[in-house]
Amino acid sequence: MSAIRSAAPATGAAVRAALSGRRRDTVGIAFQVLLLASLLFSLAVLLVLIVDVLGRALPVFADRGFGFLTSPLSSNPAKAGVFQGIIGTAVLGLLVAILAFPLGLATAIYLEEYAEDTRFTRLVQINIRNLAGVPSVVYGLLGLSVFVALFDAIDGNGNGRTILAGGATLAVLVLPIVIITSIEALRAVPISIREAGYGVGASRWEVTRKLVLPSAAPGILTGTVLALSRALGETAPLVIAGAVLGSFSGLTFGTLFTGSYTALPMIVYDWSRRPQEAFRADAAAAIVVLLAITLFANGIAILLRNRSERTW
Amino acid sequence: MVQLATRPGAVDAPASPSAEVPAPGTMEPIIRLVDVSFYYSKFRAVKHVTLDFAPRKITALIGPSGCGKSTLLRTFNRMNDLIPGTRIEGRVLYHGLDLYARDVDPVEVRRRIGMVFQKANPFPKSIYDNVAFGPRINGFKGNLDDLVEDSLQRAALWNDVKDKLRQSGLALSGGQQQRLCIARAIATSPDVILMDEPCSALDPRATLQIEELMFELKENYTIVIVTHNMQQAARASDQTVFLNMDEDRAGYVVEQGPTAQLFTNPKNQITEDYVSGRFG
Fold first, then answer.
1. Chain A residues within 8 A (CB-CB) of chain B?
2. What is the reported pTM?
3. How many CB atoms lie within 10 A of CB A167?
4. Alpha helices in chain A (DSSP H)
5. I need a labelling partner for B108 at 20 to 30 A (CA). Which of A204, A304, B54, B205 fits?
6. ipTM surpassing 0.90, yes or no?
């Protein structure tokens, strides 16, 4: 290679010969096609799922209308509804948001803005990352042995399998996700903004509260959305931590926090195991309701995010 | 927390230099470094610096890359405190008070010794809120609108932005952003403004505007500027400090003096080599 050697004299003919006759970039095109194919495949899978579920669910909604949403659980597939599931899932979602969001955000702020970078804090961070990968069943066991036991003790009658125990279990399950995404969002705030704040005499808290958090808010909210969606779809931890699998009567607002509860994923799981074919359709309808609730929760969070994202 | 001396030349009281400042030569230094060494963990970045900074002068710190100019500058307002594992030896005196004394609050120090950074870093907020940020957190009681206008006037930015104070500070041009940062620094009424290569990302015209601005600001403020640009130091400063990197890679002061003298008639051979462009 003699890179330094000067090029051939740039006559018009030489330039034309060198620059014309462009060949096809075959590899590049092939790669682009492959990427598009991956995208289409994912979309197709999603589409098949939705079409399949909707196809089974629509007759149920057509037959029963809002009755399906307002009826309690029943062993008769023609009467069974998801009322308890909707209430359960909504309350669980609220509990997760109330418990996991402040706790996770505070942890992230401490680790990222306050704690010194020591071997200990690095160990803590690595472990939080590992916790995010722990199977959810394990959190169910934790919920059973800690929260259910705790509420057992408070109740005194061994009736700790309440929605509070379930919500606490799900909150702990998604806590690592909230912490990690919040840390990433805080870390993405440029150091120059912090320096500017300190430079005009802001304290650490003022820099965090007035400069770093507003800049990180969209990322933090996105993480919380992801965490919340995950929590709403979980079944395994709730099975272990005491949500009712099968029908139960009751559930009034008086016993909301002390009585039996269930959630939509539990109902879907229960109904799809039943022998009657009609429950299969009910399960599909319950899935549609769950999807709608998840979308609704995400929509709220996205709205919040967009409001905080008013970029300057 | 230590009550620092009230600063001359606060925003609301344009100072009359003759009344407060003694004749040159007898001036009390506003910042005095006594045998300052600075360490990043084990690495000594700056060693045995002893310097005086006269009030209401522009002092330029020049020297080759990595000689510790910025590090030294950031010891004046304890910005280096934010970097873990750093350590300072010696004393940094501000109006005679050791800034690193145990009971000195670094937050309070930074309100009086403002800073403008290499890359213009407006907050992602409106122009108005950028300038008002410092006064607000400092519990400013008074007419904030007037203070914002006054600070922007002093930073020679008012005419450019008076009709769009509610627009983003990030929408301004590079030179305007840097002047906004200067206005933001002025708004907390410091008496010293530290500038860390404030023009390195600006075009010649914007650079010249900043230099003219510095010239106006020195009526009321003491300015210490780190610059890579020797022409800038020669043009825009009263005093120049030349730092070089020793063989152990620690920066040290080679020579200091009035700018004209240091550039035209340096005492030290290394200084002469540097200012004439033979290295660095």
1. 116-117, 190, 192-203, 206, 210-211, 214-215, 311-312
2. 0.82
3. 29
4. 12-19, 26-64, 67-70, 83-109, 119-132, 136-142, 149-155, 163-187, 191-199, 204-206, 213-233, 236-241, 264-273, 277-308
5. B54
6. no
